[in-house]
Amino acid sequence: MFIQLPATAFVCAALVLIPIPWHWRAGNISTIAISLWLFVGNVTYGINAILWGDTVQNIAPVWCDITTKLEIGTTVALPAAMFTLCMHLERVAAIRHPSNTHSEKRYRQIMECALCFGVPLMYMALHYIVQGHRFDIIEGFGCRPTVYVSIASIFLIWVPPLVFSLGAGIFAATAFSHFWKRRATFAKHLKKSDSALTTGRYFRLMSMAIVEMFFGLLVTSLNMWWTMRPGLRPWISWKNVHSNWLEVAYFPLAIIPPTELAWTFALWFMIPIASIFFFLFFAFGQDALKEYGTTFTWIRRHVFRLRDRSSPGPYPPLTAARYLFYLLRLLPLC
């Protein structure tokens, strides 16, 4: 077993959940969707790495059917979520609508849900068209989805993520153009737009979207190139493509060439890397620090049963010394 795989996956799964509370309060569907899809990807990767750490036996076929479809869905879900996020940021910066009514916000959230969750579900269903066999099992990594590499797979599997990523880039560039035109009064404009965004939040979201967008473009392009290296297979008929659909292909480590294994590792780590990017952009913002303070206050009151000391603010400031003290008090309870 590659012990680093499940450890990395579960740590990253925990990290992407940390920003969810303040995105939930802000009603930001796009970032919630990014967090949830990254969480699902990391958890399935971690469980697969444990279950098939030293075997290629088909010990959980139904689990593989579900998780391989989720992995396919994640391929387009993250670019689609970036697209909706950049579209929202462009709309906020454009001043086309000076204020957001409740109905407009509701409509925007419904459309974002459709793009962030509905499109991936449709994408998972369409994957069956180019699913040559049931799934692959790779020792150390677990079950992986399969694609019948053909002209159809280019348009069904690889083009949609690229289109969403490029669309996100266009909206991001337009949003930056709007900002540059009114850079001196951008903070006032955000307040008038009734978007619940500050300048810091806006640029954190924009920076995260741009980084994740370019990273997604790179991953999709490299994955497409690597998969199509042997060339495209002819699409003869539906029956021919799905003739061995119930087949499960097994790949023990002993038969995997070093180059193929290295590429498998590289592709596996793409989801954890994207998760770390997402966490870093939101882990040290003002909202995050406020959330950490609230959490430690709850621990101090309910776990350590400590009273609040008199202080200028509602809670005593959380210093590094206090944090270390609370952590050491908590260790015997673990």
Description:
With 334 residues, this protein is mainly alpha-helical. The protein is built from 13 helices and three strands, in the order αααααββααααβαααα. It has a three-stranded mixed β-sheet. It starts with a helix and ends with a helix.
Helix and strand layout, with pairings?
Elements: H1 4-17, H2 20-26, H3 29-51, H4 61-94, H5 102-127, E1 135-138, E2 142-144, H6 151-181, H7 186-192, H8 199-227, H9 238-241, E3 248-251, H10 258-268, H11 270-283, H12 286-302, H13 320-330
Parallel strand pairs: 1-3
Antiparallel strand pairs: 1-2
Give Rg in angstroms.
23 Å
Helical residue percent?
55-70%
Tell me the quaternary state.
Answer: single chain
Number of strands: 3
Class from secondary-structure proportions:
mainly alpha
Shape: globular
Query: The biggest beta sheet, please?
Result: 3 strands, mixed
What gap, in angstroms, lies between the N and C termini?
27 Å
Largest beta sheet: strand ordering? 2-1-3
Strand content: under 5%
Mean pLDDT value:
84
Features:
334 residues; three-stranded mixed β-sheet
Q: Would you summarize the structure shown here?
A:
This protein is mainly α and 334 residues long. The chain has 13 helices and three strands; from the N terminus they run H-H-H-H-H-E-E-H-H-H-H-E-H-H-H-H. It has a three-stranded mixed β-sheet.
